[in-house]
Amino acid sequence: MSGKPRLTYLNGRGRMEPIRWLLAAAGVEFEEVYLETKEQYDKLIKDGFLLFQQVPLVEIDGMKMVQTRAIMSYIAGKYNLYGKDLKERALIDMYVEGMFDLNELLMTHGYQPAEKKEEHYANMIDKTENRYFPVFEKVLKDHGKDFLVGNQLSRADVQLLEIILMAEEWKPNVLAKFPLLQSFKARISNIPTIKKFLQPGSQRKPLIREEDVPKVIKIFY
Amino acid sequence: MSGKPKLYYFDGRGKMESIRWLLAAAGVEFEEEFLETREQYEKLLQGGSLMFQQVPMVEIDGMKMVQTRAILSYIAAKYNLYGKDLKERALIDMYVGGTDDLMGFILMFPFLSAEDKEKQRAFIVQKATSRYFPVYEKVLKDHGQDFLVGNNFSWADVHLLEAILMVEEKKSDVLSGFPQLQAFKARISSIPTIKKFLEPGSQRKPVPDDKYVETVRRVLRMYYDIKAN
């Protein structure tokens, strides 16, 4: 037993990726167990590992944690990435909940059936460029500081960088109208723990490939 | 300016209802502004009050808060309904995540076609009785305490009571296999602030009807079909 957090999920991004980002940003080493078959998944459920029969699962500090938000709040709280008081926390939570909504769109695009892809893409990019990115551009513009909240690195900064990179995978010039997000991206990418996570060989996962989608669906359905 | 939190939403449950429950449970009086027209909504948008162009929005402590989870977490922490340390908080967050998922299946219910409603009702009951209720039944059985976490009243208890009552509206005897949850329901319902909220005349909203659906669609210009799970 290594004492390191242990993540159980698919060998892919999905709902576990923001958790990987946050642990990496906090400089926390973690282990991973990959679900490859339905039998493995059913066994986890049978053995009582999954509180609501779902992954992500993160074994950390003696707990079998499920529910992405619960896991991320715990990690952020533990590693001082959640602001210094209740009001900073409120701001972080607002920003991060918006990012979760956007992440849902970006993350599910790869799983859309062919006939829905175009509409999904249009909606996804529209929301990115007109609903979410303008908010964070304005936050940075208004206070002129390096980080989104309280002049120090928080989970909001980590999650925003993740979202920016995901959006760029679908539309490379998506930051064209957002100069402050461009400099934010450069700045946060340079933080040593994050820089390391962005290098090849890290535990960051690639975009799901179309040919892998049926295999994923078979594990859960 | 009264100093009371002010809630901006439709005159109905939706995503704001959990916030009403939590404020009421904490004994906090609040005001409400109901969205009835598109113009009202556009005025809020133009005024920059809605960070992501969405409601719920709650004015509280000088902030215009949006995002239901952010608002609930803030209220829970402010009124000591979030456990005593990080680990209790983690448990509360996990439990609330479950009841949130369960209530999410009910959220879309009024927007479904009659045929889809029957399918969804069965889906809700199946998930409640096979995935969610057994978890909370076991938690209460294992520690034998009155409250879900830390032997203290918390957000998790309020959220679970809300979920139980909502599922019961879909199937009145749904708790029949869950004796711990039956006792829990009676116990939490008797807490004075909650008892008051459950009485007629409180700010608790009724089961959504067609008028509610019509209002939401009109104000948000949300005319597309919503599918069942």
Automatic annotation (TrEMBL), chain A:
Keyword Transferase: yes
Pfam families in the cross-refs: GST_C_3 (PF14497), GST_N (PF02798)
Gene3D superfamilies assigned to the protein according to its UniProt record, in alphabetical order: 1.20.1050.10, Glutaredoxin (3.40.30.10)
PROSITE patterns named among the record's database cross-references: GST_CTER (PS50405), GST_NTER (PS50404)
GO molecular function: glutathione transferase activity
A Gene Ontology biological process term: xenobiotic metabolic process
E.C. numbers: 2.5.1.18
Keywords: Transferase
Domain GST N-terminal: 3-83
Family note: Belongs to the GST superfamily. Alpha family.
Protein name: glutathione transferase
Organism: Malurus cyaneus samueli
From TrEMBL, chain B:
Protein family: Belongs to the GST superfamily. Alpha family.
A Pfam family hit: GST_N
Provenance organism: Malurus cyaneus samueli
InterPro entries (alphabetical): Glutathione-S-Trfase_C-like, Glutathione-S-Trfase_C_sf, Glutathione_S-Trfase, Glutathione_S-Trfase_N, GST_alpha, GST_C, GST_superfamily, Thioredoxin-like_sf
Enzyme class: transferase
Gene Ontology MF term list: glutathione transferase activity
SUPFAM superfamilies: GST C-terminal domain-like, Thioredoxin-like
The organism's place on the tree of life at top rank: Eukaryota
Gene Ontology biological process: glutathione metabolic process; xenobiotic metabolic process
GST N-terminal domain segment(s): 3-83
Stretches assigned to the GST C-terminal domain: 85-209
This protein's name: glutathione transferase
Keywords: Transferase
CDD domains: GST_C_Alpha
Keyword Transferase applies: yes
EC numbers, comma separated: 2.5.1.18
